[in-house]
Amino acid sequence: MLPYGRQSVDDADVEAVVAALRSDWLTTGPAVDEFERAISTHVGGAAAVSVTSGTAALHVAYAAAGIGAGDEVVTTPLTFVATAAAAALHGATVVFADVEADTGNLDVEAARAAMTDRTRVVAAVDYAGLPASPDAFASLAHEHGALFLEDAAHSIGSLWDGRPVGSFADLTTLSFFPTKNLTTAEGGAVVTADAALERRARGFKNHGLVRERDRQRFPDEGPWHQEVHEFGLNYRLPDVLAALGTSQLRRLAAFRTRRAEIHARYDEGLRDLEGVLTPARRAQAEPAWHLYPLRVLDGRRRDVFEQLRADGIGVQVNYIPAYWHPVFADLGYRRGMCPNAEAYYEQEISLPLFPDLTDAQVDQVVDAVRRAVTGR
Question: Is the pTM of this model over 0.70?
Answer without folding.
Answer: yes
